[in-house]
């Protein structure tokens, strides 16, 4: 089988960021500003700044500015020498001051990202294991991945889920020397905290557990000497803890700081820590500014600054409590997150606030799940109380308008964030559209369905009736699917939109690279349902084709699409699905922007192949039209072997034949980890036998006709389209006798003999199908998850390949 085109995470992020940039909320440039910190000028418009991470406003403190200027005047713009050889003269004072702040040994790094890259590979031994909190900062996750080359296992646990963490500790207790749990102190999007005290309790219970904290967002605004959130929760760090703080953000300068109480580990990291050795050191201006800030942190003034900031965050919290704005996490950090749910709503809300004179950040994928888009607001000492009040007033006014503009409601937002919401908001109904939602195709008008879905894979009316029979009443839960049929009709009862959905158990790694699926399948030897999820999908795992009919010319097309989204969300909630999948769309289809705006990310699907058949063209004429090279392949690999085979077209099979066919199908399924799915129920094959729409093309050696060595399972869609839905093969003969190519050829030959207009050759093996004249098209799916955990977990596994 040919390779499948797999997904590129960066391409997905690029698409999301491109949409946000086109909406005017990302990749902006600030203009000159005479009141920096308090305001920011964007596109010539002065905005009150509610997006800074300089919470204490120290980046504008005159003392830090004077120190930086003096350092440049005396020492120049940089000290171009590795710190391993010699440190800049100003470093000694900075290191002494920061050591005094923490009361423990510290190491200054260029920034936290390079710091993690330097520290994690030095601190973590080859005999250790790493467990990452799902939401720990990207810089920590990225640094941890360096250890994949040293076979250090890296696991992911759901955010702040200590039960999962404890399970991982037990998993590695007998095989690994130390188990590092890596987390943030304050998480940068929602402003929520790590459960520090509970983690310390786990450390007491499990001596192998070591903690690694990135507390850059907890720095300065809290803790003794402004040493951050983690230090405010513990009496002092233990020998089994590493703590990162920052000299940028709230600290007002540049650089980062590692706190390490373990003397042996401290010496090891300081002696050689990757970027700590080979990267340039901090510029003189940054060192001087950081020293000036450290002096403030060591003075009583830091507590006055913290108090001033706290009065503003407390005021903002009090104002928010008087509104019904969806604040995602209630805490006393300076980071606040107002959920908008769908990206399109977030774009609208941010633009509205900017037009009112307020700059806020957009929280978007991959920092948060796509449908957990929202507005990230940070409070600083720059912000005045009247500006804070004005921002809240603006949000109260514009939030419902942003929802209305983007055809959504507050309930949908609360549902996306799994927040309780009792009041039912009436959707603005359009009397010209009606929703028909059915559980069985029996309730759908057969003529109307086939009129719009004819010639599409195996999902004409009779094909869906067949699937309902096969995927119900089975012993295994993965073999039982729920079907939902959606028709949105206009006042004349004509469909504006038609589609169907299934609720089924999927393997999370279905579209992952084969190496990832092999890792997951190893775990499924003990737990067959490891990394599986209930999925609400357009179409089904059995069907392939254009599952969505929409009347592009209808004036109510957009309203119909929004009704479909609302219906999907209601079904998702009712059935408990963890993932929504909209399948089989063109790469550059017209609905791309709409689905992105509704909180879906685009993923590559295996390429789809088809052949359009002209009336009167026989197989010989078809082969003659192939390229010279492909005709050579045909003669050498297909025509030369055809005389050896007995080809039978069966409508009904014996039990022995069905057993052979099922076994051959299972060999292909298990071999094709590039599209990793569950098996089909055994009764599928017996129900196919004798069904008027199904037939079997079997391949046998003439010398041993009792043994089937290959089979194509083919469906007749309304005498229009011939669908080889899936295949079974004995791999012993694939290379020696080119049996896969022979089955493809016999399928094309059969379809032409029967007078079909089209052959849907389905997904995968595009290279082989193209050789026989197939047209290959790229297809995409749109995915929406309750959180990013599954995607991130697969990403961690892929990076370990």
TrEMBL record:
Its cofactor is pyridoxal 5'-phosphate. It comes from the Bacteria. The keyword Cell wall biogenesis/degradation does not apply. InterPro entries: Acyl_CoA_acyltransferase (IPR016181), Aminotransferase_I/II_large (IPR004839), AON_synthase_class-II (IPR050087), BioF2-like_GNAT_dom (IPR038740), PyrdxlP-dep_Trfase (IPR015424), PyrdxlP-dep_Trfase_major (IPR015421), PyrdxlP-dep_Trfase_small (IPR015422). Keywords: Pyridoxal phosphate, Transferase. Residues 51-392 form the Aminotransferase class I/classII large domain. Residues 630-769 form the BioF2-like acetyltransferase domain. It holds the Pfam family Acetyltransf_6. The keyword Transferase applies. This is Aminotransferase class I/II-fold pyridoxal phosphate-dependent enzyme. The lineage of its organism: Bacteria, Pseudomonadati, Bacteroidota, Flavobacteriia, Flavobacteriales.
């Amino acid at each position: 089988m040919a390779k499948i085109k797999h997904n590129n995470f960066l391409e997905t992020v690029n698409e999301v960021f491109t949409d946000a940039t086109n909406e005017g909320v990302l990749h902006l440039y600030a203009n000159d500003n005479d009141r920096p910190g308090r305001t920011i000028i964007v596109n010539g418009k002065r905005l009150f700044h509610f997006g800074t991470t300089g919470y204490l406003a120290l980046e504008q403190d005159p003392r830090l500015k004077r120190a930086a200027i003096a350092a440049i005047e005396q020492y120049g713009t940089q000290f171009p020498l590795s710190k391993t050889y010699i440190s800049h003269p100003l470093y000694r004072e900075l290191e002494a001051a920061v050591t005094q702040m923490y009361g423990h040994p510290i190491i200054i790094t260029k920034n936290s990202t390079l710091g993690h890259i330097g520290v994690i590979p030095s601190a973590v031994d080859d005999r250790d294991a790493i467990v990452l909190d799902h939401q720990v900062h990207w810089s920590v996750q990225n640094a941890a991945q360096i250890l994949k080359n040293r076979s250090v296992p890296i696991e992911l646990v759901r955010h702040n889920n200590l039960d999962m963490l404890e399970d991982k500790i037990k998993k590695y207790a007998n095989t690994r020397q130390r188990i590092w749990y890596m987390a943030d102190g304050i998480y940068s999007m929602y402003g929520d905290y790590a459960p520090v005290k509970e983690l310390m309790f786990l450390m007491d219970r499990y001596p192998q557990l070591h903690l690694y904290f990135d507390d850059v967002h907890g720095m300065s605004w809290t803790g003794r000497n402004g040493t951050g959130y983690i230090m405010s929760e513990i009496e002092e760090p233990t020998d089994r803890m590493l703590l990162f703080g920052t000299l940028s953000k709230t600290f007002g300068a540049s650089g980062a700081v590692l706190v390490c109480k373990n003397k042996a580990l401290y010496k090891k990291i300081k002696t050689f820590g990757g970027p700590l050795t080979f990267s340039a050191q901090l510029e003189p201006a940054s060192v001087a500014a950081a020293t000036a800030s450290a002096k403030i942190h060591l003075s009583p003034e830091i507590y006055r600054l913290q108090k001033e900031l706290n009065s503003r965050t407390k005021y903002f919290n009090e104002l928010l409590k008087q509104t019904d704005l969806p604040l995602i996490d209630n805490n006393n950090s300076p980071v606040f997150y107002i959920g908008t749910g769908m990206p399109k709503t977030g774009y609208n809300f941010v633009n509205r606030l900017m037009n009112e004179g307020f700059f806020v950040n957009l929280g978007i994928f991959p920092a948060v799940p796509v449908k957990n888009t929202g507005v990230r607001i940070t409070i600083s000492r720059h912000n005045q109380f009247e500006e804070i009040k004005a921002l809240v007033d603006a949000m109260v006014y514009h939030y419902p308008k942003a929802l209305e503009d983007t055809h959504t409601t507050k309930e949908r937002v609360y549902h996306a964030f799994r927040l309780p919401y009792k009041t039912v908001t009436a959707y603005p109904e359009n009397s010209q559209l009606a929703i028909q939602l059915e559980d069985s195709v029996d309730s759908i008008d057969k003529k109307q369905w086939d009129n719009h879905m004819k010639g599409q894979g195996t999902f004409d009316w009779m094909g869906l009736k067949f699937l309902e029979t096969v995927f119900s009443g089975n012993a295994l839960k993965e073999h039982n699917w729920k079907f939902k049929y959606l028709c949105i009709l206009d006042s004349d009862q004509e469909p504006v939109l038609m589609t169907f959905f299934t609720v089924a158990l999927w393997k999370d790694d279905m579209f992952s690279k084969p190496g990832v699926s092999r890792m997951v399948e190893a775990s499924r030897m003990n737990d067959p349902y490891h990394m599986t999820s209930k999925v609400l999908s357009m179409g089904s795992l059995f069907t392939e084709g254009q599952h969505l009919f929409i009347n592009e010319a209808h004036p109510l097309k957009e309203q119909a699409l929004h009704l479909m989204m609302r219906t999907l969300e209601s079904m998702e909630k009712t059935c408990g699905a963890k993932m929504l999948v909209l399948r089989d769309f063109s790469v550059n289809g017209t609905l791309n922007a709409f689905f992105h705006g509704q909180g879906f990310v685009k993923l590559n699907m295996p390429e789809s192949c088809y052949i359009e058949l002209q009336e009167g063209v026989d197989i010989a004429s078809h082969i003659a039209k192939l390229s010279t090279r492909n005709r050579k392949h045909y003669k050498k690999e297909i025509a030369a072997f055809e005389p050896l085979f007995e080809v039978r077209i069966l409508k009904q099979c014996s039990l022995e034949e069905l057993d052979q066919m099922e076994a051959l199908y299972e060999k292909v399924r298990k071999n094709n980890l590039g599209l990793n799915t569950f098996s089909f129920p055994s009764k599928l094959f017996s129900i196919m036998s004798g069904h008027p729409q199904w037939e079997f093309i079997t391949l046998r050696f003439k010398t041993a006709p009792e043994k089937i060595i290959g089979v194509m399972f083919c469906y007749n869609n309304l005498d229009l389209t011939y669908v080889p839905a899936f295949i079974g093969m004995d791999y012993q003969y694939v290379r020696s006798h080119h049996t896969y190519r022979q089955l493809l050829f016999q399928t094309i030959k059969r379809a032409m003999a029967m007078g079909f207009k089209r052959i849907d050759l389905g997904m995968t093996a595009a290279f082989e199908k193209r050789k026989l004249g197939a047209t290959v098209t790229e297809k995409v799916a749109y995915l929406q998850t309750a959180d990013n955990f599954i995607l991130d977990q697969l990403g961690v596994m892929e990076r370990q390949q």
